[in-house]
Amino acid sequence: MGYDDDNQCFKAKNSWGKSWGEDGYFRIAYNDTQDIKFGCYACLASGVYIENQGEMITLQNTGTGNLSIHNITSDKPWLGFEPQTMDTILPGHQKQLSVFVKDWSMISEARDMAVLTVHSNDSANSVMKITIEALIEAQSLRPILSVSPPFQNGVWIENDIIHIQIQDTGGHVEFQVSNSGTSDMSWTVENKTSWIQIEQGESGVNTGIIQISCETNSKLVERIGDVVISASGALNSPQIVQIHQTFSENPDLNGNLELDIMDIVQMLKILAGMSEHSDIRIQMKDVIRVLNLVGNGVAH
User: Fold this and answer.
1) Which residue range or ranges hold the BACON domain (predicted)?
2) Local structure of residue 216 (DSSP, 8 states)
3) How far apart are alpha carbons 84 and 72 in whole angstroms?
């Protein structure tokens, strides 16, 4: 019925009437409450959890005092839970916590275990650990992301990354996205490279064609850009396509498709920091090489 911090006790009411105890009430010392439960009792969560469905865990206050949930944590990044914070649970009340797999691609073994830890003000059991089990059999319910590169020279796969080499003059490259799983898959393409443009297939469902275009490489060095294809909840996601663009040792800086004295002038301006081609890196040895080519009448 109440508490008294000054006397360090709880005040309880009996069922025998006012003739018993202190007008029907009695006191229980704070340190003598072994049979009074203030804690939460959650069910043990285990089994297979399907993306976006999950399972519910019940947090129940079986005591007579307010139950405060301080925080809830997970020891594995693939395990998600909602809500992230929980209001006070009144005596005799309960609240539910949804647990689910955030990203199946983080689970690489046949099965994986996670522990959800609930911290509360329960004096008898302030830390409750709940075991969550994810079984890889759930893969049969998941989509599988597959990216097929073009059949051409200059294409190879290394460390699960697709590498495609293109010429310094630029051009277009196509590759195919497909879903070899059983459930639907939504995919997106991310490109953070300024000289690569997504011409077709920025997103799609299950299958599709991605077409990219690359600008001319006017730098005197090979450049590399990544195109990342992601599908939430799918196996093999994300997939990376890495574009390797070659460079020309003899840049046509004035755009007339041949090497001449004006290209040498532009190269000297770049060296002096006076050119609009500020992104091109040139050394004096490059100027000397092109000067020799022009002197010998070698066209670009």
Assistant:
1) 166-235
2) -
3) 7
Structure tokens at 262: 């004006």
3-state SS assignment for residue 227: strand
The full DSSP string for 57-98 is EEEEB-SSS-B-EEEEEESSTTEEEE-SS-PPBPTT-EEEEE
Tokens of 186: 């939504």
Cβ neighbours of 193 (radius 10 Å) = 16
Locus of tokens 């040895």: 285
Q: Tell me, what's the pLDDT at 151?
A: 84
Say how far apart CA 174 and CA 192 lie, in whole Å.
18
Q: What is the pTM of this model?
A: 0.46
Residues of the chain under the 70 pLDDT cut? 1-54, 110, 135-140, 218-220, 248-259, 275-282, 289-290, 293-300
Domains, the chain, with CATH or none? 1-36 (2.40.50), 38-140 (2.60.40.10), 145-245 (2.60.40.10), 261-295 (no CATH)
Q: What is the pLDDT of residue 190?
A: 92
What whole-number distance in Å separates Cα of residue 280 and Cα of residue 91?
71
How far apart CA 28 and CA 3 sit, in angstroms, is: 9
